[in-house]
């Protein structure tokens, strides 16, 4: 359980870091704030990943966020596969935010507050996508991940190609999201559950209806 508390702490650090970067009026502070937040969250993610690889998977839910009568419960599971992705996200995100310290200052006309908050939220959502064990919350974090990454794509507003690429990216990701929503509705209707662990068991016991030939 303490490992998932470390993961949730990483989420909280990224969320707090994005808020601090957004409200900070000093542009020179945004970079260090983002780097400190990402370093803390990234190291926690790597720690969780290593511990899961050494000691086995962990699962826990956040009952306080569950909705009465709603089949979705925010449950997070870290097994060795998700730990691999979690560790990679932590390491690569730390390297990425370190690179931006020298990269973003070249764009003097752009406000770093339009970059660092979406970046930290994007990393948070990536970590959540690979660890959440429920279709509804997977879809929630997936959608928020695509939204925040859109702002990263169009960071250079004076570049027309960036804006065009951002529009195409936004369109394609939402086509994908529509497919995920359809799958979520179908599985929920067939099984009455949105849990990644419960759906296969229920599906084997009660397969979906088929049309007669």
Automatic annotation (TrEMBL):
Its main location: membrane. It is a multi-pass membrane protein. Residues 134-202 form the NADH:quinone oxidoreductase/Mrp antiporter transmembrane domain. One of its GO terms (molecular function) is oxidoreductase activity. It comes from the Bacteria. GO terms for cellular component: plasma membrane. InterPro entries: ComplexI-like_HydComp, ND/Mrp_TM. It is an enzyme of class 1 (oxidoreductase). This is Hydrogenase-4 component B. The chain crosses the membrane at residues 31-53, 83-103, 115-133, 167-190. It is found in: Cell membrane; Membrane. Pfam families: Proton_antipo_M. It comes from Pelotomaculum propionicicum. Its EC number is 1.-.-.-. The keyword Lipoprotein does not apply. Keywords: Cell membrane, Membrane, Oxidoreductase, Transmembrane, Transmembrane helix.
């Amino acid at each position: 359980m303490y490992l998932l508390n470390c993961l949730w702490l990483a989420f909280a650090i990224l969320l707090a870091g994005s808020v601090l970067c957004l409200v900070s009026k000093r542009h020179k502070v945004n970079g260090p704030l983002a780097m400190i937040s990402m370093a803390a969250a990234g190291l926690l993610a790597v720690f969780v990943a290593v511990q899961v690889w050494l000691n086995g998977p962990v699962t826990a839910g956040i009952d306080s966020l569950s909705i009465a009568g709603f089949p979705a419960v925010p449950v997070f599971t870290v097994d060795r596969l998700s730990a691999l992705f979690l560790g990679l996200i932590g390491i690569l995100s730390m390297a990425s935010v370190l690179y931006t310290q020298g990269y973003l200052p070249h764009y003097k006309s752009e406000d770093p507050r339009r970059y660092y908050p979406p970046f930290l939220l994007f990393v948070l959502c990536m970590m959540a996508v690979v660890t959440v064990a429920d279709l509804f919350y997977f879809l929630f974090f997936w959608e928020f991940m695509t939204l925040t990454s859109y702002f990263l794509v169009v960071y250079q507003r004076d570049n027309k190609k960036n804006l065009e690429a951002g529009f195409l990216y936004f369109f394609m990701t939402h086509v994908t999201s529509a497919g995920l929503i359809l799958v979520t509705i179908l599985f929920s209707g067939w099984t009455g559950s949105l849990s990644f662990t419960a759906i296969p068991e229920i599906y084997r016991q009660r397969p979906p209806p088929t049309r007669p030939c």
